[in-house]
Amino acid sequence: MTKQQRKTVLVIVGIVIASYIVRSIVISAMQMAYHQQQAIRAAQRQQAKPKPAPHKAPPGVSASKAAAPAKPIRRTAPARSPSTSGNFPGIWVGRAALSGKGICDLRFELREKQDEPDHFMGYSALTCRAFAPLVGRALNRVDPEAAILSGTVEKGSFEFKADKVVGTDSNGCAPTSFSLTPFGANLLAADWQEGACVGGHMILHKARS
Question: Which pTM does this prediction carry?
Answer without folding.
Answer: 0.57
